[in-house]
Amino acid sequence: MRIVPYLLAALAMTLPARADVAADLSARKQAVIDAYNAADIDALAANYTDDAWHISPRRPPAVGRAAIAAYFAPAMKFYTMVSSAKVLNVNVSGDTAVMISENSLTGMPRPGAASGDKSPPAFTESRINLTVFKKQTDGRWLIDRFIDTTPPDAPR
C-alpha cells in the first residue's frame, strides 16, 4: 500500500492536465482561423497532419494537406472569419486527442472582395465540430480529422 502514493504521483507527472491539453488544442484551431484571416494558405495547411481529412457539410471531403489548402483557398479571397468556440468535451489517449466543440462562425467580406458587381454576403453559422488531433514527435498537436456539422435547422 505504501507504493500507491508514488504511483499516483508518477501518473500525475506523465499525464498532462486536461485543461492544458484543451488549451493547446483550442490554440491549434485558432491558428487555423488566424492563418485563414491572414490569407496564408501554407500556415493554415501546416496545422494539419500530412494525411488529414477535413469534412464539412455540402462539400466533398478534403484529404491531405494539399487538398485542404485547395479547399480553403477560394473562400480566403472573399472572407475573413471570426470564430468563437465552446469546448464541450476533450478526451486524450496517448498521442490522440478528440475535441467536441460548439462554434459560432461569422464570415465578413474582405475589402474589395467583390465578385462581378456584387460583394459576397456576410454570414453567421452555428456549428458542432469533432476534431481529432495527433501529437507529433516534437510535442505539437496537429489536426488529423475534422468533421463539421450544422444544426438540423440551419438554412441550406
Give a brief description.
It is globular and about 50 Å long. It has a single domain, classed as Nuclear Transport Factor 2, Chain: A (Roll), CATH 3.10.450.
Secondary structure layout plus pairing:
Elements: H1 4-14, H2 18-37, H3 41-45, E1 48-55, E2 62-63, H4 65-76, E3 79-93, E4 96-109, E5 123-135, E6 141-149
Descriptive overview:
The protein has 156 residues and is α+β, with helices and mostly antiparallel strands. The protein has a single domain (17-149), classed as Nuclear Transport Factor 2, Chain: A, CATH 3.10.450.50. The chain is 31% helix and 39% strand. The protein is built from 4 helices and 6 strands; from the N terminus they run H-H-H-E-E-H-E-E-E-E. The protein has helices at 4-14, 18-37, 41-45, 65-76; strands at residues 48-55, 62-63, 79-93, 96-109, 123-135, 141-149. The chain has a 6-stranded mixed β-sheet. The N and C termini lie far apart (61 Å).
Question: What integer value in Å does the Rg equal?
Answer: 18 Å
CATH topology (level 3) name: Nuclear Transport Factor 2, Chain: A
Broad CATH class: Alpha Beta
Query: How much of the sequence is in beta strands?
Result: 35-45%
Helix share bin: 25-40%
Q: How many DSSP E strands?
A: 6
N-end to C-end Cα span: 61 Å
Strand/helix succession: HHHEEHEEEE
Number of structurally distinct domains: 1
Q: Which spans of ≥5 residues are poorly predicted at pLDDT below 50?
A: 7-17
